[in-house]
Automatic annotation (TrEMBL):
Cross-referenced InterPro entries: Ala_racemase, Ala_racemase/Decarboxylase_C, Ala_racemase_C, Ala_racemase_N, Ala_racemase_pyridoxalP-BS, PLP-binding_barrel
Stored HAMAP family: Ala_racemase (MF_01201)
Cofactor names: pyridoxal 5'-phosphate
Sites of N6-(pyridoxal phosphate)lysine modification: K36
Active site residues per record: K36, Y263
Enzyme class: isomerase
Name this protein carries in UniProt: Alanine racemase
Species of provenance: Paenibacillus arenilitoris
Lineage of source species: Bacteria, Bacillati, Bacillota, Bacilli, Bacillales
Homology family: Belongs to the alanine racemase family.
Length: 368
């Protein structure tokens, strides 16, 4: 490891979060752990192993390459790819025993050019329904009627039929209720068509924690596994963040009143101030939008001032500090704590965007 800036991941927190979530549901409800985007920045295989120890029955990722990476690292749990893959990639996915998301009959029509219906092994698929998020999935009865005949093929197993809520973290549940009712209507389409489905699922982290009655046959847990969830709306659940991010002051200097720092003279000192430089920047995933957030030095808060550079940023320190002093970017120091949720509020996003944005050139250190 050649950088003082490093992410520290407490694996036990991921496992314990999953164990707590597992206890919220009957054994008949399966737990699918979502480890896409390198495990939301925590490490994909490491998160997958902790999820399995915590009771996960299956995994989900966004793309084929993420699933193949998990298989290459020895992960054997069933894996669902949440984004439809190209039809010509189906043989590769089958070789690694991966489950596929499908949304249309046209995909099946094209897929048959690459897979023989008489194949000995069965292809496991999950059908995605768009009930209001507007991302991917079938939306109309006509689309279902076009898809359904393909699902009756002898070499196809419909392992799941699922949707995703757009507003599960919002206090107002009006739109979520609308999506729930739409999904119930779509399930009737499935049942009337005679297509056998192994699992119906609609609840991601926020929906599963807030509305356990929506668990159906399976829940998909991603953000909550890493300690990101709407705490205010589910006060009875206590999950712990697993990630911290730390660095050190590489240079400390005193700025006189009226002096500038940063590109475009983006910060001007109002008085005599102490400034520390920290080796993390937007190429590490610390975007310029995080100017004005805080970090911890010597147990006190220090504000990011001036435009964040590609490789470094500057802090207005609470006073003179030694070069080499530890900087807590995410995590606790003394009685203070910086969370991904706090940082996310600053730029109007969700906590998992903060962790998922940490670039590969930031080393990860795994601890129990």
């Amino acid at each position: 490891m050649f950088r003082v800036t490093r992410a520290e991941v407490r694996l036990g927190k991921i496992r314990d979060n999953m164990k707590q979530i597992r206890c919220l549901f009957p054994d008949t409800v399966k737990l699918m752990a979502v480890v896409k985007a390198d495990g939301y920045g925590h490490g994909d295989a490491e998160a997958a192993r902790m999820a399995e120890q915590g009771g996960a029955d299956a995994l989900a990722v966004a793309y084929l390459n993420e699933a193949l990476r998990l298989r290459a690292q020895g992960i054997t749990l069933p894996i669902l790819i949440l984004t439809p893959i190209e039809p010509q990639e189906v043989p590769l996915a089958e070789e690694h025993e991966l489950m596929l998301t499908v949304t249309s009959g046209e995909w099946f029509r094209e897929m048959r050019r690459y897979r023989n219906a008489s194949a000995a092994d069965k292809l496991k698929v999950h059908v995605k329904a768009d009930t209001g998020l507007g991302r991917i999935g079938l939306r109309s009865k006509e689309e279902w009627d076009e898809l359904a005949p393909w699902l009756h093929a002898d070499d196809i197993v419909v392992d799941g039929f699922f949707t995703h809520f757009a507003t599960a973290s919002n206090e107002d549940t009006t739109f979520l209720t609308r999506q729930r009712d739409r999904f119930a209507e779509m399930i009737e389409w499935v049942e009337h068509s005679g297509v056998a489905v192994n699992h119906y699922h609609c609840a991601g982290s926020a929906a599963a924690l807030r509305f356990p009655e929506l668990a159906m046959d399976m829940v998909r847990i991603g953000a909550a596994m890493f300690g990101f969830y709407p705490e205010r709306l589910v006060p009875s659940v206590k999950l712990e963040p697993a990630l911290s991010l730390r660095s050190r002051l590489m240079q400390v200097k005193q700025l006189r009143k009226g002096e500038y720092i940063g590109y475009d003279n983006s910060y001007r000192a109002d008085g005599d101030e102490w400034i520390g430089t920290v080796p993390i920047g937007y190429a590490d995933g610390w975007s310029q939008g995080l100017q004005g957030t805080q970090m911890l030095v010597n147990g006190k808060r220090a504000t990011v001032v001036g435009k964040i550079c590609m490789d470094q940023l500057m802090l207005r320190l609470p006073g003179p500090c030694e070069e080499g002093a530890e900087v807590t970017i995410i995590g606790s120091q003394g009685d203070e704590r910086i969370t991904c949720a706090e940082l996310a509020r600053h730029i109007g996003t969700v906590p998992q965007e903060i962790s998922a944005s940490i670039a590969p050139r930031v080393s990860k250190v795994y601890k129990e």
